[in-house]
Amino acid sequence: MAQISSITRIGTSEPFELQVSRGQIYLHNTLFKYGYNPNIINVEETIWDGGGIYAYPSSAVAMTVTSASGATDSGVRVWVYGLDTDYVEVNEEVTLNASGTATTTQTFLRVFRAFVSGATAPAGNITIANGGTTYAQITAGENQTLMAVYTVPAGKTLYLSSGTATHGTDTAGAYMTIRFMTRQPGGVFRTSVKVDVTGGELLFPFTYPLWLPEKSDLEVRARCNKNQINAVSATFEGVLISNG
After folding, report:
1. Measuring CA to CA, which residue among 42, 26, 15 is closest to residue 177?
2. Residue whose C-alpha is closest to residue 143's, from 168, 124, 163, 157
């Protein structure tokens, strides 16, 4: 079946980024992650819905999906995306039961995205957790996780092309210190980018993309210099290229 081309009548090519998004570049996939944390004070936290420093499972486990509104959210459907014990991409859709919970049959070593997949929006916050630790949260009204957290799947390399950081206050003298943290397999989290933001947005393109090999973790963290509540958002994007 022929595919409609977005090449102009005069031009002979279209942007590489558009071709990747359209699936026209073999073994290439786009990545865009957006995180938001409305309650950062003067203690460093990850930019995600759950608050605090994000915790990673030590082994692949089943996830329990739970609505804070209980039975009110019976029938709500949720897709959970992440990686299995071999760092292979996996996903599963669950439907909340009469008590507002569901447990995945798939086990997850990483969870980095979840969203409401059906026509019914939940009334309460939805957590994706195991053993009392939350690995993702869908805040009521968002219908999608907002987590600047990602792990590179097995067999792929991430080339990070840009990132943004936004500080949602203009209080005199207040600023956010924001860190892009990366951890390669068997290593510790290291600061890859560190910036200060005062009541605005910073955009930092990587002219030469940052290279992250398979199984690397990436997250964004922030801390305020003052004891006050701040809203902080962060994004990062790039291209995932299969290793072979």
Report:
1. 42
2. 124
Question: Exposure string (b/e) for 205-231, b if CB count within 10 Å is 16 or more?
Answer: ebeeebebebbbbbbbbbbbeeeeebe
Count CB neighbours of 78 within 10 A. Answer: 26
Q: What is the pTM of this model?
A: 0.93
Residue whose tokens read 């090449």: 7
Collapsing DSSP to helix, strand or coil, 20 comes out as helix
* Dihedral pair phi/psi, residue 65, rounded to 5°: -100, 120
Structural contact between residues 215 and 185, judged by C-beta atoms closer than 8 angstroms: yes
Model pLDDT for residues 128-152, shown as the tens digit of each residue: 999 999 999 999 999 999 999 999 9
CATH class of 16-54+149-242: mainly beta
Q: What does the pLDDT look like over 77-98, one tens digit per residue?
A: 999 999 999 999 999 999 999 9
- pLDDT tens digits for 40-77? 999 999 999 999 999 999 999 999 999 999 999 999 99
